[in-house]
Specification:
Chain B: InterPro entries: Prenyl_trans_a. The complex is a heterodimer of chains A (about 300) and B (about 375). Chain A has one domain: Glycosyltransferase, CATH 1.50.10. Chain A is about 50% helix and about 0% strand. In chain A, helix 5 runs parallel beside helix 7, helix 7 runs parallel beside helix 9 and helix 9 packs parallel to helix 11. Chain B is mainly α. Chain B has a two-stranded antiparallel sheet with strand order 1-2. In chain B, a hairpin with a 2-residue loop joins strand 1 and strand 2. Classes of the chains: A mainly alpha (about 300), B mainly alpha (about 375).
């Protein structure tokens, strides 16, 4: 088993952030705020956030008006990424907290769920994003937490997992969102931890990687979704950490940097973040610890909540 | 995505050369201090977006603006604002939404994992109402025939059923999909969705008996199938006593254990049953005993412990889980008395009507 090629991953992320003419950046244009969050958080975990010009990033974020990219309307997906990136740089003071909070509050529906935007698509992903965002901004009291929690619980399935809406299939990504939102609101007692924990640890396949649903292929992204959920419900020791570490390391491009979904596939920033974040959760040496609920380095979360 | 861009490139006239656009000044993207390097395949894209910005900021509600959004979407179906503006145009221009549905279908054929497309489709279906029902069910069927675990398609299908109806044939559809692939967890989930929510089937209680039969068959064919075992447990949700007392459940465990092959879920189910108060008969005890590898150390004191020991051995990746399960089993006589002394200090809980003695942790409902 090799080691984490930290320097190469740092160089890879920096090169992608600069590469605006790539095919990926054209089709993923709308996702660039999320991309910035993935790349910059991975850099921070690897202890290299100082290689980025803070002012450039902050002015770029502010020019977006919290939409996905210049000229895009606000969608809650991008709002959270923008807030998370500003939190990384300790620049939350530039956020118009009341305006952002009012926007998020307006997206909560009567049944406690959240829409992603004014068009009303509902998904437990948006519940997590809304809750995480207002919590970082110290405005959790502005949303109806009780109803929000009730809606999330209505998406709980008989296997202990959670789906995107009531009755939706359990999926590790949705489980992260639901468990994360419940963790932030102090409602983890409503999770069937042993049942969910067993479902989550059944996601580990022979290669050591994790899948997101039964009979699906393993993917490095679930090193984040599954692992963070297991940590939040205190059941992470039920999987084989050694085998998972080996799987993630096998997905590295050790020459050019970056991490892919499975061994020998093409790398991208998204999987580079999930691989590095997963290794951080597994206490891999040399990486900063990351908070499983807020998806930000622990020192950043501490700064948000304890430095006031 | 690449395919769409190349196709559209072939005989495309640049917008700046089209007479109907001569009165519009495109607005280039302002992307901060670093200029975007123009490259071949993004030239069309940039031009369309420049014109899009112009009509968007002018809030121009016209049919040319509508065509422009179609062009922008065909180049990048993930642009949120373009879809947003298109909906505003469809509303104000009173466009026939059946035509719009065909457009979405065309875009979706190459981008079925795109959130915006599904959301737009739902918006169109919601506006059309009942008349959209069959075509929406048919459309998701088509997507699912290519990828039977497509999360967006299932999500959309559940929405159609709940909003517009069409439940009558849904259980048959689940049967079909499971006949094709009995490991399809999405189809099992849909099956559970149907038997618990369909207004025509009478709910879980009414369906339980026939569903147990169906599931037991499925388990016997493929005992390594996680989905069917979980479904079986789900049929007895909040009904642990029924689960324990339904002899079909313990019988299927025995049947699988006797084959000495792919018995992991049979063992774990038997362990669950025992933890819920089930008393295994001699046949089951013998079947479990027969699975003990010959190199096993000392005899375990009871069948539940033996099951955990075997699972530790045959499922090494989850060894800690099985060790934990063993640690939560009721203690033996001497320890039991010790535990009971602590009872008044709140260290012991009742679970599912069965006294469960636990060393620590009281947070969950189902365990032993």
């Amino acid at each position: 088993m090799g080691e984490l090629a930290t320097d190469k991953h740092v160089r890879y992320i920096l090169s992608v952030e600069k590469k605006k003419d790539s095919f990926e950046s054209v089709v993923m244009e709308h996702l660039r705020m999320n991309g910035a969050y993935w790349g910059l958080t991975a850099l921070d975990i690897m202890g290299k956030l100082d290689t980025v010009d803070v002012n450039e990033v902050v002015s770029w974020i502010m020019s977006w008006g919290f939409g996905g990219n210049v000229g895009h309307d606000p969608h809650i997906l991008y709002t959270l990424s923008a807030v998370q990136v500003l939190a990384l740089f300790n620049k939350l003071d530039v956020v118009d907290v009341d305006k952002v909070t009012t926007y998020i509050v307006s997206l909560q529906n009567e049944d406690g769920s959240f829409s992603g935007d004014i068009w009303g698509e509902v998904d437990t992903r948006f519940s997590y994003i809304a809750i995480c965002c207002v919590s970082i901004l110290h405005r959790l009291d502005r949303i109806n937490v009780e109803k929000a929690v009730k809606y999330i619980i209505s998406c709980k399935n008989m296997d202990g997992g959670f789906g995107c809406t009531p009755g939706g299939e359990s999926h590790a990504g949705q489980i992260f969102c639901c468990v994360g939102a419940l963790a932030i609101t102090g409602s983890l007692d409503l999770v069937d931890k042993d049942l969910l924990g067993w479902w989550l640890c059944e996601r580990q396949v022979k290669s050591g990687g994790l899948n997101g649903r039964p009979e699906k292929l393993p993917d490095v992204c679930y090193s984040w979704w599954v692992l963070s959920s297991l940590i939040m419900i205190d059941r992470v020791h039920w999987i084989s950490k050694e085998k998972l570490i080996k799987f993630i390391l096998d997905c590295q491009d050790t020459e050019k940097g970056g991490i892919s979904d499975r061994p020998d596939d093409a790398v991208d920033v998204f999987h580079t973040y999930f691989g590095v974040a997963g290794l951080s959760l597994l206490e891999y040496p040399g990486l900063k610890p990351i908070d499983p609920a807020y998806a930000l380095p622990v020192d950043v979360v501490d700064r948000i909540f304890f430095s006031k | 995505m690449a395919g769409i861009i190349e196709e559209e490139n072939d005989d495309r006239v640049p917008i700046r050369l089209r007479p109907e656009w001569s009165d519009v000044t495109p607005i280039p993207q302002d992307d901060g201090p670093n200029p975007v390097v123009p490259i071949n395949y993004s030239e069309d894209f940039s031009e369309v977006m420049d014109y899009f910005r112009a009509v968007y900021f002018a809030n121009e509600h016209s049919s040319r603006a509508l065509s422009l959004t179609a062009e922008a979407i065909s180049l990048n179906a993930g642009n949120y604002t373009v879809w947003h503006f298109r909906r505003l145009l469809l509303e104000s221009l009173k466009v026939d939404l059946n035509v719009e549905r065909e457009f979405v279908e065309k875009v979706a054929s190459g981008n079925s994992k795109n959130y915006q497309i599904w959301h737009h489709r739902r918006w169109v279906a919601e506006k059309l109402g009942l008349e959209a029902r069959n075509s929406e069910l048919e459309f998701t069927k088509e997507i699912l025939s290519i990828d039977a675990k497509h999360y967006h398609a299932w999500s959309h299908r559940q929405w159609v059923l709940q909003t517009l109806g069409g439940w009558e044939d849904e259980l048959n559809y689940c049967n079909e999909l499971l006949a094709e692939d009995i490991f399809n967890n999405s189809a099992w989930n849909q099956r559970y969705f149907v038997i618990t929510r369909s207004p025509f089937l009478g709910g879980l209680k009414a369906m339980r008996d026939s569903e147990v039969l169906y599931t037991v068959e499925a388990i016997i064919s493929y005992p390594e199938n996680e989905s069917s075992w979980r479904y079986l447990r789900g049929l007895f949700k909040d009904e642990s006593a029924l689960y324990v007392n339904d002899t079909r459940v313990s019988s299927v465990c025995l049947k699988i254990l006797k084959t000495k092959n792919k018995y992991l879920f049979a063992l774990s189910t038997l362990l669950d049953l025992i933890c819920l108060g089930y008393h295994p008969n001699e046949d089951l005890k013998d079947a479990v005993e027969a699975l003990r590898p010959s190199n096993f150390g000392k005899q375990d004191s009871d069948i539940a412990r033996t099951i955990c020991s075997i699972l530790e051995q045959v499922d090494p990746i989850r060894v800690n889980y099985w060790v934990w399960r063993k640690s939560r089993l009721p203690q033996e006589e001497e320890e039991l008395r010790h535990c009971q002394e602590h009872r008044h200090q709140g260290r012991v809980g009742f679970v599912d009507g069965v006294t469960s003695l636990r060393k620590e942790g009281f947070e969950s409902e189902f365990d032993c």
